[in-house]
Design a protein that fits this description.
Number of strands: 3
Distance between the termini: 20 Å
Helix content: 25-40%
Shape: globular
Strand content: 25-35%
Structural class: alpha+beta
Radius of gyration: 12 Å
Amino acid sequence: QKPTERFLITGYSKLSKPEQKVSYEQVSAVINYLIEQEGIRPERLVARPAQQGGEPNRVRVRVAADGEMP
């Protein structure tokens, strides 16, 4: 892992509010794990919960492309 890499943590859900809440909780759990267990600084992580277009109840972690992060 490169110390300057930034990561997108994307959670997918259906449109219902309960499923979106689950997505937020799942993304939060992944972020907490990355910070507490892997030692990744929080400013290197961007959460994108409750997104459409992926398999519901899945969380995807990937390295952000150049220019993709704010």
